[in-house]
Structure prediction request, 274 residues.
Amino acid sequence: MKQIDAHLHVWSGDPAGYPYLPGTPDGIARGDAEFLLELQADAGVDGALIVQPIHHGFDHSYVNDVLEKYPDKFVGMALADPAADDPTAALQVLKDQHGYQGVRINPGLWPAGQSMDGPIGDQLMSFCAETGLVAGFLIEPSHFGQVNALCSRYPETRTIIDHFGSVKPGQTQELKELLALARHPKMHVKVSRFPVSSESEWPYTDMSDTIHGLIDAFGVERLMFATDFPHVVAQCGYARGWQIADHVTPSLTDEQRVWLMGGTVMKLFNAWGN
Prediction:
């Protein structure tokens, strides 16, 4: 069984060579690809989906170089710029020249006064459908209705909701709305960023009911586990971050665990030797 981390970031330790976005705090945590590979080797992790980090903004140079250097280890998800004259132009270049297979859609970057399910969202979803790119949503529960509208208009677009959709334990109505998105057959959910979603300490077992609700609604074949490196290193450590699933879903069958810990993301992105 291959273990694939379905969501993480990498950023350069050389801001002179790969500039950070203005306003990035001084002394940010180490997040380079070589550090990640060391941790993955120790944890028995075979590869990862890299999501373009906000520290580099829309400058994908560092992730481009990482993808080129380690093509068997990593797949890239680009960050869409919804304020660009044509948000799809840069994405097309990243796909064609650097092999990106996904697009992160972050409503927090939308122009003021515009909704994610407006014209820009339509353009991005249509583009993903036409190119085969996977659309990943970094959202909160207040955005579930907009995601539902987009997926209803573009049912052929493969989609992912990151980080449980920011649903926390005890948010029964928000969880109900998240589970309702299972009506879209090509929708997936990342069970990720546990230290932020949880209200308890490692191993964050208060997320168990949420995950089992997702399994019942989506099936484990549409769920994927992720650590959210490098943030997880300071939160609980990479190796312990990878062990979370064994504690919050101890009743998983071997087959279900194969899907959750790598099978789903391997199938969705047709990568890592799938």
Q: What stands out?
A: Strands lie at 4-8, 47-51, 74-79, 102-105, 134-137, 159-161, 187-191, 223-225. The chain has a mean pLDDT of 97. The first helix runs from residue 33 to 43. The longest strand covers residues 74-79.
